[in-house]
Amino acid sequence: MLTMLFVCVLLFFLGAAIGSFLNVVVYRTLSGESWKVGRSHCEHCNHTITWYENIPLLSFVMLGGRCSVCKKPIDITHPVVEVLMGSLFVWWYLVGSLFFQLSQNPFQVVQPLFWLCVGVVLCLIVVIDMQHYIIPDVLSALLLVLALCYRTALTAAGIMQPTDYIQLALAALVGSGFLFILWHATRGKGIGFGDVKLMVPLALLVGWPQVVALLFVAFVSGAVVGVLLMVCGKKTMKYAVPFGPFLIAGAVFSLLWGDTLLGWYLSQLGM
Asked: How far apart are CA 197 and CA 138, in angstroms?
């Protein structure tokens, strides 16, 4: 237990450090700055952040969430991303053994690394979409490349059959086609085109018919959250709610419990 706890703590801070770096990359990219040069600085007064002010999570707590010079609040996105990434690494370690079932070399290593990379990309999409209401094409493209390479590797190893690509193509067609129709019908006011593009790699990850569960969970959870925000006075019908996080939540649910949900639904229909 002590060894497991030590590994979890180590992985959490490793994930938080990676999250801190990726957060800087995202912030500078969206603001038009280069992330390759220059040290981290305060977003308000441009104070150069020292190494002891840049320790993931700990520095935010020690500074009271404010810049040490201008005393203005540090964007809450920074600790949120760090906690999210750290938690992802711990979850990957603790729960991954239940899902990483491929024992054939080299998939003993490839499978867990693939899902960790997918998790990192999905976390970034969630944060960016919630904060900026956009889904960067580069992240959707990266997710697509990861999914295609992984599926192709599985097929080459004989774990997947070539005919399985037909089901994957069906999942991508149904998922993205459905969202495209909604996007076109609402003229982009219901969902964004970024959601349509994101649906393609998500469908390749979950497959058919789990993509149906993905869409069901995404729309139900999105509707529930939207209604709650309006009831609490946080949003009105005039304001948009980013849909990307709900698509990703639907994908995660579908990967873990999609078969159970579809089985329950079909049983209710007497099938």
From this structure: 11
